[in-house]
Amino acid sequence: MNFRSRRTEDPDLNILPLIDVVFLLLIFFMVTTTFDRDSEISITLPEASQDKVDSKPQAVEIDIDREGRVFINARALANAQSATIREALDQAVKASDDRDDPAIIINADAETSHQSVIRVMDAARQLGLRRVTFATRLEQSE
């Protein structure tokens, strides 16, 4: 009978695969993070001395202020009637890079009427635009 104690080896824990997984998760969360975009309509626009740049917007931005005034790509519309919104939105879509189905971003003031937002959404629907989203901001906790 052999009563000698067996020699036990220290367990070897390889943490390299764990580090790889942590780095992949870090990269994933960095890539998928959304950034805060603030859009403001300036009442007094500054004058520029440089020539007009021919650049087409990636998305069509529609701003609706507290009084229900509508701005498409920072240009104020003459009125907030459905026909005016539809015509201006159609022109903005034709000027964008993605003419088939551009992204429509609606920046509506929290105090604007529900009807103003519905009027803009209805104009987009009549033009066959499907990629309509709303810009929001994170709520500040006190």
What does this structure look like?
The chain has helices at residues 16-32, 82-95, 114-126, and strands at 59-64, 70-72, 75-76, 103-108, 132-134. The chain has 3 helices and 5 strands; from the N terminus they run H-E-E-E-H-E-H-E. Helix content is 31%, strand content 14%. Helix 2 (82-95) packs across helix 3. It is rod-shaped. It has a domain at 59-134: Nucleotidyltransferase, domain 5 (2-Layer Sandwich), CATH 3.30.420.270. It has a 5-stranded mixed β-sheet, with helices on one face. It has 142 residues and is an alpha/beta fold. The chain crosses the membrane at residues 15-35. Pfam families: ExbD. Belongs to the ExbD/TolR family.
Brief digest:
Helices cover 31% and strands 14% of the residues.
Total strands: the figure is 5
Distance between the termini: 74 Å
Strand order of the largest sheet: 3-2-1-4-5
How much helix, percentage-wise, in residues?
25-40%
The CATH architecture designation of the domain at 59-134 is 2-Layer Sandwich
Beta fraction:
5-15%
List the helices and strands and how they pair.
Elements: H1 16-32, E1 59-64, E2 70-72, E3 75-76, H2 82-95, E4 103-108, H3 114-126, E5 132-134
Parallel strand pairs: 1-4, 4-5
Antiparallel strand pairs: 1-2, 2-3
Helix pairs in contact: 2-3
GO molecular function, one term: transmembrane transporter activity
Pfam families: ExbD (PF02472)
Family: Belongs to the ExbD/TolR family.
